[in-house]
Design a protein that fits this description.
The chain is mainly beta and 357 residues long. The protein is 13% helix and 34% strand. It folds into three domains: 56 residues, no CATH class; 94 residues, Immunoglobulin-like, CATH 2.60.40.10; 195 residues, no CATH class. It has six helices and 23 strands. A hairpin with a 6-residue loop joins strand 21 and strand 22.
């Protein structure tokens, strides 16, 4: 039995067997007839065999990450340098990146740039504009992966000039103080999940509708092309969202932020209304549109069913309820510079102007 075991051991190639003695020393089988002691390695080293001969190897050594260059909104250039392969062939090198610190090669956001020592260049692509990233060079050999120092950078922010709703309507945007507003009244006939908003055309039905609905002024879609559509508050409050993703119907407090920034509600209206008489009836007092908000006199659909106010006023919903029956809104007239504030029934038909989150 011992003879058979001895023959079986002789048949094993060199380096295929190792043993650890009682003194913790490691030996390997030479493939012929002997166990050969292996000298101890250093902390952090790994044992590998090449052609049956053992050697201790390190992870790649001396890795540095290059500074970021050629930075754009969606791309950047980095790279790194490797001083030593650690005694084993480098199988991959490159950079990895993430929006969180300490990125690793487990991420899909990495490059592979060769298999040798020395310097290399890495192109980072498909980045998001205005976003901060963290990047590290890496190198991998049979002993493991080593990372270089971490660098961070922020891609170039691309100014947003418009936003598109579910229906494909495009709205220009304007910054006023710390807020970003649409420059046109909302026109969508779908919630943002794709569900259709009912178009209620019969006045008596409008008065009794207690779910989300919209209408065109005087049931004429030509009016909506210029002035936007009119919505009841049930559509405003619907969790499926009227405004495009990343936008919302402003709260009462956010309307106040706007008027306060413009010097108060008694003069803010003139700064928000489109100047001239192309859409507003005379006299359109104090209208300068210096903000670019371009408020137009879209009129309203009364909760008792009739239309009114085209050319003379514009009501804007807020998202803030006054109580179970009424909701805060703002309105502008052609004969003064006020932004008026009051509360109205939820089944009124008013304009919606969206605010960026």
């Amino acid at each position: 039995m011992l003879f058979v075991l001895h023959i079986a051991l002789f048949a094993q190639p060199a380096g295929s067997k190792i043993k650890i003695g009682t003194d913790s020393h490691i030996s390997y089988w030479d493939g012929i007839n002997s166990w050969i002691p292996i000298s101890p390695g250093l902390p952090g080293q790994n044992l590998q065999f090449v052609a049956g001969i053992p050697s201790w190897v390190n992870n790649p050594q001396g890795i540095t990450t290059n500074i970021i260059t050629s930075l754009t909104a969606t791309s950047a250039v980095s790279g790194g340098n490797i001083i030593s392969d650690g005694g084993a062939t480098i199988t991959a090198r490159g950079v990895c990146w993430s929006t969180s610190p300490n990125p690793t090669i487990s991420l899909s956001t990495k490059t592979i740039n060769g298999t040798s020592n020395g310097s290399f260049v890495s192109n980072l692509s498909e980045l998001t504009s205005g976003t901060t990233y963290f990047v590290r060079a890496y190198a991998t050999n049979s002993a493991g992966t080593t990372y270089g120092n971490e660098m961070s950078f922020t891609t170039v922010a691309v100014p947003i000039t418009n936003v598109t709703d579910f229906d494909g309507n495009v709205y220009d945007i304007i910054t006023i103080g710390s807020q970003i507003w649409m420059k046109q009244n909302l026109k969508t006939i779908h919630y943002q999940n794709g569900d259709e908003i009912p178009n209620v055309t019969v006045n008596s039905n409008w008065a009794t509708t207690l779910t989300g609905a919209y209408c065109d002024y005087n049931n004429n879609a030509v009016n909506s092309a210029t002035y936007g559509r009119l919505y009841n508050f049930y559509a405003v409050a619907d969790v499926r969202n009227l405004c495009p993703n990343g936008w919302h119907v402003p709260s009462d407090a956010e309307w106040t932020t706007l008027t306060t920034y413009l010097g108060g509600s008694t003069i803010a209206g003139g700064k928000l209304k489109e100047a001239g008489l192309s859409h507003w009836n005379a006299l359109n007092d104090g209208a300068t549109n210096e903000t670019g908000f371009t408020a137009l006199p879209a009129g309203y659909h009364a909760n008792y069913g009739t239309y009114g106010g085209l050319g003379t006023l514009n009501y804007f919903w807020s998202s803030t309820e006054y109580d179970a029956t009424y909701v805060w809104a703002r309105f502008l007239f052609n004969y003064d510079t006020n932004v008026n504030r009051s509360y109205y029934a939820k089944n009124q038909g008013y304009s919606v102007r969206c605010l960026k989150n």
